[in-house]
Amino acid sequence: MDDDDVTFGTTTLDRPTTSSGTSGGTGSTSTTTSSPTESDYFAPEVAGDPPTTSGGESTTEASGDEEVIADTTESGEFAEASPAELAAESGEESAVSDLRGIEGFEETVSSESESGAEAGLAEAGEATEAGEEGAEFLPILAALVPTLVSAAGPAIAKGIAGKLSPKAKAAVRRVPPPRPGASGVKPGSTGALLAQIAQLLRTLQAKPGGESGIEASTEPLVGEAAAVLELIIGKDDRVRITKTNEIPWRRICALKITFPSGAVYRGTGFLIGPRTLATAGHCVYLHNQGGWARRIEVIPGANGTAKPYGSVVATQLRSVGGWVNGRKPESDYGCIVLPQGSFGGRSLGNFAFGALPNNEIVAKPAVLAGYPGDKPFAEMWGMARKIKTAGPRTLVYDIDTMGGQSGAPVYIKRANGSRTVVGIHNYGAASGNSATRVTQPVYQRLLAWSKL
To answer: Rounded to whole angstroms, how far apart are CA atoms 110 and 122?
Structure first.
C-alpha cells in the first residue's frame, strides 16, 4: 500500500523489509512538530551563513539508511492561466528578479494558445514573401518534406530532434497541424511548410526505428534543417548562472548519481534543511538501474569545475511508496540526507516550501534552475516563466529544461519576499514541462525530511 513504511538497510538495497520505526502515514514522525515560524503548510526560507567563494571538501559518507516512506493521494481542482495572465508583465519583486542582471537574460512573456501559434506561422509566411532572409528558408524546408516521408523518415526526424534546443523542441510540439485554408498561412509558404514538418516530426519520432542513426549523405540536410528550425521557431531562453556562491543559487546542488547497475547519471537537488536535499524520486531510486542509488556526490553551488563549498558523498536516501512501489509520476520525489558536518559545517540556508492554493501559483512567475545534461557537467542554467496550469498533484510550465535538471526547485516569490518552492521538476511533455506539486501530503513529507 502507498502508506506503508519500508526500510532499506545498507546491505539489503535490493529487498525491502517492513520497518518497525515510528514513521508513518503522511509524515507523522516524532520530528514533525512545527516550530513557531511554521504555518500549517508553509516552511520558511533560511538565509544561512554569508556567501563565500571557496570551501573545503568533505569525503565523509553517511551510514546508508535508505528508507521508503509512502505518500497519500489527494484530490483537488485543476486551474489554468488565461492567455492574458500569461502575457502580463512580471512584478519587480517576483522570482524573475533573481535572474535579472544575468548576462543573456531576456524577460519575455508567453501565450500558448493555438491562435497565437498560428499567428506566428502566418508571420513567418509573410516574411518569406517580403524578405530575402525568409525566402532563404524555403529550399531547405521544401527539401525536408519528401525526405521525412521517405523510408529514412524516422531516422531523419530523430536526428533533427537531437540537434534542437529545448525551446525549439517545445515549439515543434506546439505548432498546430496543417489546416488547408488557414487564415494567413499561404500554401507553399514557410508557415505552411513548418506546420507540415512539425506534424511529421511529431509523428515520426513516436515510431520505432531510426535508432541506428542517419546515413552520411543525409547528415548535411539534418544539420541545416535543425539550424533553420532554430532560427524560425525559437531559441533556448535559459541563461548560465555563474555567481553560484550567492543566495539562492548556492542552495541548488549538482548530483553525480551511481546506481547498482554501474550507470552514472547527473541530476539536481536543493536544500530544504541543514542536512536535507529534496530531489526527484528517480534521482534516488531508478527501477531499471537496480533500484536505490549506491552513492550520490552532492556539489552545492557547482559552477563547472569549481566547487565553492566542496562536495560530499551521501548514501542515506528516501522516497515515497507511490514512486518506489507504484512508479507514479506525481509521486516522483525523494530526498538525500547529508552526512553530519558536510561542507565544513557551513550553513548554506534553504528554500522555503509550501502547499499553496491555486490563486497563489497559477500565472505566477517561477524560476527553475539546475544542471542540464546538454551542457558541460555542473554548469548551472536557469529560466523563468509563469506557471501555466496547476493540477491536483502536478504543475505545468513552459520553462526550457533538459535531462539532468530533474529534481530542480520550481520556486516563486511570495509577498514577503520568501523564495518558496511549489514544485519539484521531473518531467517534460507535449503540453509543457512539469513538476510534482507541493501538496499538503508532500509538504508534510518534506517537512519531516527537512528535520533529519
So the answer is: 18
| pLDDT above 80 (res 189) | no
Evaluate if residue 55 carries a pLDDT over 50.
no
In Å, what is the CA distance from 90 to each residue of 80, 94, 95? 17, 7, 9
Distance in angstroms (rounded) separating the CA atoms of residues 85 and 241: 27
**DSSP single-letter state for residue 440:** H
Is 58's pLDDT higher than 60?
A: no
Q: How far is CA 151 from the centre of its chain?
A: 34
In which residue are the cell numbers 560530499 written? 312
Q: Structural domains in the chain?
A: 1-108+237-452 (2.40.10.120), 114-233 (no CATH)
Catalytic status, residue 287: no
Active site residue 282: yes
Whether the CA torsion 247, 110, 328, 296 is positive or negative: it is negative
Verify cis geometry, omega within 30 degrees of 0, for the bond prior to 329. Answer: no
Secondary structure element (H or E) that encloses residue 253, with its range: strand 252-258
Pairwise CA distance, residues 249 & 268, whole Å = 12
159-175 mean pLDDT: 75
Scanning 74-189, the segments in alpha helix (DSSP H) are 83-87, 114-130, 132-135, 137-148, 153-163, 166-174
How many C-beta atoms surround the C-beta of residue 261 within 10 A? 12
Query: Which residue bears the cell 518534406?
Result: 145
How far apart (Å, rounded) are the C-alpha atoms in residues 104 and 323?
Answer: 37
Kind plus residue range of the DSSP H or E element containing 411: strand 409-413
What does the alpha-carbon distance between residue 439 and residue 422 come to, in Å, rounded to a whole number?
8
User: Residue 39 class from Cβ within 10 Å (0-12 exposed, 13-18 middle, 19+ buried)?
Assistant: exposed
Report the distance separating Cα 55 and Cα 48, nearest Å: 15
- The model's confidence at residue 208, banded by pLDDT at 50, 70 and 90, is low
Please name the residues in contact with 188: beta carbons below 8 A apart, sequence gap of 6 or more: none
Give 385-442 pLDDT, tens digit per residue: 899 999 999 999 888 777 889 999 999 999 888 999 999 999 865 456 889 999 999 9
For the record, the C-alpha cell of 132 comes out as 530575402
**How far is Cα 217 from Cα 215, in angstroms, rounded to an integer?**
5
pTM value is 0.66
User: In angstroms, rounded to a whole number, what is the distance separating the alpha carbons of residues 5 and 24?
Assistant: 6
When comparing pLDDT for 177 and 332, which is higher? 332
pLDDT reported for residue 253: 97
Q: Which residue out of 282, 311, 319, 425 is catalytically annotated?
A: 282
3-state secondary structure of 412: strand
Q: Which of 189, 406, 434, 450 is catalytic?
A: 406
CA distance 98 to 101: 8
